Amino acid sequence: MADTPATPADPHFVPIEGTLEAPIIFFEVCPTFGNNGGLINLMLATGLIDSAPHGKVASRVKAVAHLRMTAAAAVNLRDTLNNALAMGVPKPEGRTN
Predict the structure, then answer these.
(1) Contact in structure between 52 and 60 (CB atoms under 8 Å)
(2) Residue 38 to residues 35, 69, 77: CA-CA distances in angstroms?
(3) What is the mean pLDDT for each group of 10 consecutive residues in the chain (97 residues)?
(4) φ, ψ for residue 51 (rounded to 5)?
(5) Comparing C-alpha atoms, which of 21, 20, 33, 19 is closest to residue 66?
(6) Integer Cα distance of 52 and 60 in angstroms
(7) Is-above-0.85 flag for pTM?
């Protein structure tokens, strides 16, 4: 029987616990933000439509999450968002020099 070489460990891989149980947060706006001595805070919110009397509708904005993070975590979040946005930018077609 041939020995199968061990798969080398990935030094950049960090195991994450609770990925299946983590909530999914959908938001459309970030109406407030602040910096309190290096602690960054953001409020995430989304628009909701409610039924109203006489066949009308009423809209409102509801907070869905408050984020609190260190400056280092904020930088990491910003860089991750930039990378995710860059993934959606169409690539030029054809040869490039």
Answers:
(1) no
(2) 6, 9, 15
(3) 72 90 96 96 97 93 97 97 94 72
(4) -75, 150
(5) 33
(6) 12
(7) no
